[in-house]
Amino acid sequence: MLELRSLSKTYEGKPLLTDVSFTVETGETVCLLGASGSGKSTLLRIIAGLESPDHGTITFDGLDLASTPPHLRDFGLVFQDYALFPHLTVFQNVAFGLKMRKASNDEITARVADVVRLVNLTGFENRKITDLSGGEQQRVALARALAILPRLLMFDEPLGALDRALKDEVLSELRAILHQTRIPAIYVTHDQEEAFTIADRILLLHEGCILREGTPAEVWAHPGSAWAARFLNVGNVVEGQVKGQKSKVGIWQVETSLGLVSVSCGHSHATGERIGLLLSPSPRGRGARGEVVLTVTAQVEDVLFQREQFKVQLRGGLFIHKKDAPKVGEVIPATFGVECLGHE
Description:
By secondary structure, this protein is α+β, with helices and mostly antiparallel strands. It is about 25% helix and about 35% strand. An 8-stranded antiparallel beta sheet has the order 13-12-11-14-18-15-16-17. A 6-stranded mixed beta sheet has the order 6-7-8-3-9-10, with helices on both faces. Strands 2-1-4-5 form a 4-stranded antiparallel beta sheet, with helices on one face. A hairpin with a 5-residue loop joins strand 11 (about 235-245) and strand 12.
């Protein structure tokens, strides 16, 4: 198990990472998801041993890695640009790490055959890297990382150069390989769809801090902050001012651009405090669980087709999802689940 405890890092007096702590269990894929500049790649470089933290510790199976150089950590890395050797064949690229470890020829041959088969590249061993497609090159990079039997796999925006169709294909294969090998993995990306496809657990990173942690379903259902809700685009984030509490404990009255809205939450609020509310475009039966549901009437401004549903843009900046497309200009009712996101 990999464990990070209270990692912090600054650059030119500015914090890059602040008190970052998390674990990665055997067989688990943890995704670091955040915008550019959030600290994702810096964190990966620290785990790899390419940079040192200012504070905090990194352990693997209980052993502190502070004095362990990168090449002795037995961690595999896969990058966006693949970092392959273009003048070498697929076999030679995959075998590179094993040769650096002075493995025998028989061991290299057997191990390369195993991982090439695992990534569905059997028969490609003698091809040059320059003769491969982007997806095939990414498979070679993965095979090279797997060949050394790494204790941990790390991916830094590995599919950024692939088109959507190819990315979906490689993601599906990669997830299957990670589950089959049971190698713990850290996957860094800014692409939300990638993260929710590949991850067993997601860490939302913002300005060097972990703002939300949970399974993809948990993070999507309850992003936990206004920033996270906007970044994930899970619903409409509306700013409001607390006007007071209803007679029922935990029900607050919040003044918003939509009028007075009731919200149920476990936060402590003060009258006059500004908070963020998440209006989910698909309430998912929230009212049945005692949570607040809000219905408004608004004019349709635009309709966007998104695979199996339509995203309906409403006047006032709100949006909902519908199976059938209404007409632009039509006035329709819209129902939202209301969730308090805390301080705006």
